[in-house]
Amino acid sequence: MDALPTTTTAAVLDRDGLQALIEALAARGFRVLGPLVRDEAIVYDEIAGVADLPAGWTDRQGPGQYRLERRDDQALFGFAAAPQSWKRFLHPPVETLWRVRQGEGGLLFSTAAEATPRYAFLGVRACDLHAIAIQDRVLCEGDYRDDAYARRRRGAFIVALNCSEAGDTCFCVSMGSGPKAAGAFDLALTELLDERRHEFLVEVGSAAGGEVLASLPQRAALDADRAAAAAVVERTAGRMGRQLDTAGLQALLQDNPEHPRWDEVAERCLSCANCTMVCPTCFCTTVEDHSDLAGGSAERVRLWDSCFTLDFSYIHGGSVRQTDKGRYRQWMTHKLSTWFDQFGSSGCVGCGRCITWCPVGIDITEEAAAIRATPHVQGGSHGES
Amino acid sequence: MDSRPRLAVWKFASCDGCQLSLLDCEDELLSLAEAVEIAYFAEASSAMEGGPYDLSLVEGSITTAHDAERIREVRRQSKFLVTIGACATAGGIQALRNFADVNEYISVVYASPQYIETLATSTPIAAHVPVDFELRGCPINKVQLLEVISAFLAGRKPSIPTYSVCIECKRRGNLCVMVQGTPCLGPVTQAGCGALCPGCRRGCYGCYGPMETPDTAMLARQWSAMGVAPRDIRRAFHTFNAWAPAFREEGEAHDD
After folding, report:
1. Judging by beta carbons within 10 Å of its beta carbon (0-12, 13-18, 19+), is residue B99 exposed, middle or buried?
2. What distance in Å separates the CA atoms of residue A209 and residue A2, rounded to the nearest whole number?
3. pTM for the model
4. Is residue A5 part of a domain?
5. What is the model's pLDDT at position B26?
6. Angstroms from B76 CA to nearest CA on chain A
7. What per-residue confidence (pLDDT) applies to A5?
8. Is ipTM beyond 0.90?
9. B-chain residue closest to A82, CA distance
């Protein structure tokens, strides 16, 4: 990502201009990924043009519920967070780290040969933009840098999206992460749709973004266009489906490890790990080593892992977190509280995926509110129970 | 003398599908035959050699007094015994007899019931002899089977996860059919199949049995809220792994 220009420039594209943007990115060697309808949902995958986008579709999300529905207009981005975030492209679920085989002179190691893909993401919402920044901090900074992630990240072109739709499980306003895209993007779109027009205000966030935008058929952005875009964001901010009161939350959770609500949520939690898989900031992985039948070669594969499995906390003598209570408390406390201690920010961006995609609809905002409602019921230690 | 480990494959009450998973390893079959001496595999070869064996793969459940005796002999002849498939690890679909009167079944199914000698129950191998490793599935996954055999040959622990199907499902990029309205056993079922059915937009049938921490009661509550009748909840839990304790108890908690 190039340095931000000192002044934000902007232009307005129509649908043809958006098509030209997708083509311009493809022509520059990017694999363009954006929203499309598949399996009765709006997912992120490879797109060839505007025709692939989910025109006239939206989603209805709720705790443990997702339904694809028709809109009464032809909006291209009129839906909320996709089932999985961009994490699966930047931090893929399965990745071979290296292979080894017996050579004449000893063991011969080779790293995965695949070239680093150059992705262009079309429609990265503010929450997901924040999530990418959080994963950058976790995976690229500090002593244990993930070089493959860093390469994919460096090569990515990000077209952000200022949300025009808030889902029933969205709460980015509470987390200070949206719905206005802020941070490291190349271009940012706002969909402007009414009876008279269907256009996109495009703001420039990097030199690379400016270069691409300059090559597209466009018209200059007027103050009225900027005002319309600001109104879209303001309207979305007022329609959040959920709220999470974050005041003092960090201490609240750390001070209430024995709150009875943890037992109550443990009754409902399946430990299935769906929340961690769909969370755009959850980064945990495990490695598996596989040897072949002849014993001549082996490989090390890295896979998405979850703090909801027994193996995750297995040390000599057994798993540290044996109970649903211990595992759910660990996940939620890390996400909303100890993440600050570790990485300097919240681990939650308010995308609501953990609420929608929990098979039994456990709602992190409701759990936090329940602990806030009756804090310090009993103090106690952080011991496992 | 042949120094390769000696492999034996045994069949008890079963459909042979799990043994076929071994024969399905077409690309790896020659490597396997090089790495081990296939000493006993009646499904594949009529050359059946005596024990002892280094590794025995056991398919099927115990449903007769004769088999209850035979598995003890297999155990005596085997250094390492791995059970493969839902029949061997949980009693299989034939364990549905455990919930009913087997004599009534016999009288309905067979023209000459007097020739049938059977136990009242179908039980997993581990209920009869110590088992070193259980590989789940109906049928087992051949990639997992090769992993278990390769791990045995290398003297390492096999990488066979015991967490939910959901983890595999999400890694694969499937949409959650449960959240989209289709009842699914994935959250309480052990991974291993590669989330086959959700990948085809169907709910999980629980072929790999209960996962490590199965909260079947909560899942059943959610199914109920989705409009699934008690009888159908019972039937969903009582299939290939009906006699696995978590599935057995949850099924029994719902009226037929």
Report:
1. middle
2. 9
3. 0.95
4. no
5. 87
6. 26
7. 45
8. yes
9. B175
